[in-house]
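Recap from last week: sequence in, structure out.
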Amino acid sequence: MQKNTFLFDIAATLLEEHSQQMENLTVILPNKRARIFLINALKAQTKVPLVAPEIISIETFVQEVSGITALDSIELLFEFYAVYARLTPEQPEPFESFAPWAKTLLQDFNEIDRYLLNPNTILTYLENIKEIEHWSVSVDKHTELIERHLAFWRKLPSYYHEFYHHLRDKKRGYQGLMYREAVANLPHFMQHSSARKYCFVGFNALTKAEETIVQQLMAADRATVYWDADRAFLEDPLHDAGLFLRRYLKEWPHYKTQPLQHVYSQFQEAKKITVIGTSKSIGQAKLVGSILEKHLEDHPDTALQDCAVVLGEESLLVPILYNLPASIPALNITMGYSSKNNPAQILAHKWFKMHLNAQQRNPQQYVFYFRDVLDVITHPLVEPYIQADVLLKYVRQNNVTFIPQNRLFTLLEKPPTALFQLLFQKWEAHASGVLQTLATLLLEIKAQLNYTSNDEKIANAFLYSLYKIVNKLISYFEQHPVDNQPETAFALYKQIVDLAEVSFEGEPLEGLQIMGVLESRVLDFETVIITSVNEGKFPSGKSNNSFIPYDVKREYGLPTYKEKDAIYTYHFYHLLQRAKNVYLLYNSDSEGLDAGERSRFITQLEVEKQPQHQLIFEQYHPEVPQIAYEPMVVPKDEAVMHQLKAIATEKYFSPSSLTNYVRNPIRFYFQRLLRISEAEEVEENIAVNTLGTIIHAVLEDLYTPFIGRILSVHDIEACFSKIEAKVVEKFKDVYKEGEIQKGRNLLAFEVAKRNVFNFLKLELESLKKGEVVQILALEQGFEREFVHPKLPFPIKIGGNVDRIELRDGRVRIIDYKTGRVEGKSVTLSSWKGLTEDNKNDKIIQVLAYAFLYEKEAKGLPMEVGIISFKNLKSGFLPFKFKADKEVQTEVTPEILAAYLEELATLLAEIFNPEIPFREKIV
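Predicted structure tokens:
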């Protein structure tokens, strides 16, 4: 064990001064964690059997003196609500709106009692402040709201006294009540334990109640205080690390006649302090791993028991665990795993949300939102046991957005399991029934685990931690008369679930120690790594979780942010006091969501640098590759070439697949060769391509009766009345059971109707102008072999054409586009590089349709183009070839030949085994 520690020194003092009366000695520490380290220090310094002294925390000691049992924060809320409802019978607030302000008020009650203040004085002061805030409103003009507001502040003394006595009669209470009662009960306690001596070890900031208890015991020669004081802080009148101790030396009568024991000069000793700035919190986590790895390389024989990682921000725990070197021999974590990341808690939260949303929509119909259902059934704790794949398939294939609760049970291929029923059965009307269902649900999930793997053992630990909390909530609702609604259960669940931490297993005396700032009290380490040394995190900065204003706190001696900063200063400098190697990590990013400013503690170390301190400042920049992303390259091996040939000869290449290749060859490879398509997802809001499919289908239905004959004005006029019915029909065909009666989908529905209406209107105007239109084909597929000297064999080109018509003696091939297309997108001035530029994708596509239909046109003049529904005012946008000043819209044999030459070049590239599929980075 490291000998240069405060506890090692205290152990030596205890053995020297109290070795003959250890059984009558009680050592009181700031926290429970330090107990095992003190016992170990005693064991290391004695070679004969010895009865160890009683070693307890200050909270345990105060509980013994007061005779009061501590209540947890949630039960305190329930007890306070009972008192509040009794004193406010006319119109008490519901529990969920009472809880937020009650927490703050209880915190103030706690502070008033811990500092032994007269509650009437403080609370009446608050009432007077609120009266002054409304001084400009005459009494006769006070509204009911103002009166109720002032009445609340007038009742604070009543709330305090009634609550205090209510708890004291039950022998239960909050920390402040225990402290006040301990002070009152101390003479009686001292009389009944006259043989015992008390040693207070390692304290710094004491409350007024703690000061009173310690001083009375010292005055009776029953107690000794061992401060961990260093001259560097004690003798500097401005140093906050010694603020409280200087105050005690000045104010306590004992120190007017007795010297201070155990004053050290260890902070001035030689230290290497490395201050490292890095980007974001995750950068600090990676840096901790790097520092530990180097430490292990430099000290291969160490077990890291004299090394500690202190987290200024506890959310860094998991990232740091992921970045620890695998070579670390042992590890001890003093913090619990946060309930925010507990998978059982995440499932319970989603389960609550799913049912509450269903109840809020309509308690009788009880309809679940599909995302809520998917969140629950895809959770890894339940997915393997409830036929989740069947439900997923149904929801996605049918585009279901809302599912009635009773319908869920009819979709399963096998009878529903008990777990499925617990997940989706209708809730009872009261909170305790809902919580009982949740407890049964957790037990049912536990029953599914077989404990064959570590993952399942860990899952069981998560389930058990949450199960205990849910049972505690059930008992609260059974014992206390509060609003028994499911919403109340969820509101309380969210407040109490933070208590459902899962503890890590480890050996406290071995290996690397990872802890929070408060857990480091009284402990010393040779190597210390402190993270998040930023303003607002270490120190934590100002926070105002109190109804008592700053000036009132200053007046009556309650702690303010000044004292809070002094406490953090003491913790910081205590970590450095006996350390030899110190690493201070901070977030150097000054902008963004995870921004930070370097802590004042670092500046203070720099300004007040000790002669023997080696202070090093570094900036850590993670290694960034010179190339952020390497484009994907897929060589064309024999299998790829075989598949390409199969597509070319047995199937065909469509115009859209060729434009896909132009845009990105890798996308072409994924879609055509690997046949990887986008995952099927529920469209909660109608996608652009879905809207386009619907419009295409509506126009096909409306125009199909006219194929092969000349369109008349009457034909088109008759179509207007059919628009709404056709759009509804196609929405149901394409969008399945998706909701179209409200929100964005209703807007999309109206857009589809408007687009079809405007298209028909455009058609009608052209007919009224005397244009002769004959529909030749709608959504018809064509296929044709393409033979060219550049190609290794004939290649099939094929695809569906949206519309082919004969207009005033010309064949017109039309491609509908839902998006906006301008005329320049189908205008070409040079054939060179046609298939190399993404901007030419629409030209490649429409000219491919011309090639497919060329034989059927039988020599008639032909034009191809686009109708853009977002640019209907422009009407038909024909392909144009601009040669000098001449503009040509007809697809002549010369134009088609020039196009086919470029197409052959494109296909030759696709079939060239030497040219791999290379990703294009946009």
